[in-house]
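Standup notes
- DV: blocked on the single-chain target, sequence here:
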Amino acid sequence: MADVTESPFRLAWRVTEPLHAMIYFVPEAAERYAAFGIRPMDGYFASRGAAFGPVGPAIVAATFYNFNPARVARALPAVWSKASPEQLLAARLEAADAALTRGLGAEVVDGPEVAEAAVLARRAAEKAATLPHGRPLFAAHAALPWPDRPHLVLFHAQTLLREFRGDGHVAALLANGISGLDAIVMHDASGQSPAGFLRGSRGWSAEQWAEAEDDLRRSGLLDADGGLTEAGVALRAHVEDRTDQVTAVAYRAIGEEGSRRLAELTRPLSRAVVKAGLLDPKTLVTHSSRPNHLPESDR
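- DV (later): unblocked, structure below
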């Protein structure tokens, strides 16, 4: 449940986020990556990292933050022998088009609510694009061309706003001495994700995970049972607050009223996406021999 004191800026991001996040789970994406002979999780690293060009694993592991670099190295740079960054960016956008049309319906996709939401989200994203400093993953995506159709403008705008926030979140984690592995161990301890999901999806071994838990216990952030201590809860809340603060500048371009309107417009769209199963990790099980390798949590 959202905090009752949630700011309009955070509300706009949170409510609209499913319209971007679905791209990591829908079979439309897995199918398009498979057409190049690329497995879903490798397609995730490649399609999201394609904004950098044909890079190796180091920059992707650094900017994605909480994945085991060894897992990233199994995908990159080998995947570029199967498809170019341009091809994978196009495949990702095609998948977004197909999935959103399926989930929302053709009439809604071309309707006035999506068009209005796209204008608001784009305005916030374009403000963010004037402030790329220290945000490498965002900056790479901000350099990509804008699509034409409103539902894809909305998807791209939310992609930019998500990466803008994500890079700010990484900065907040770093400033508080929280590594990528520490971040997902603490996220797992909060009970906000399925048990075991984060370790498997990020490619960390049981030994690496246990070592991180031990370090966090010694730091007073985890208790003996693996749950967050009061200090751990407070630290996570502080990082989220700081992330909100460094993200708010984008949404100030549309103001509090515009942010509330964006959330009002996208709430039924996001609910439709969820109802259609576009955020269900199980939809990828039949498309991958590694069903638990799915992205995104504390980044």
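- Follow-up: Residues 284-297 have pLDDT under 50 and may be disordered.
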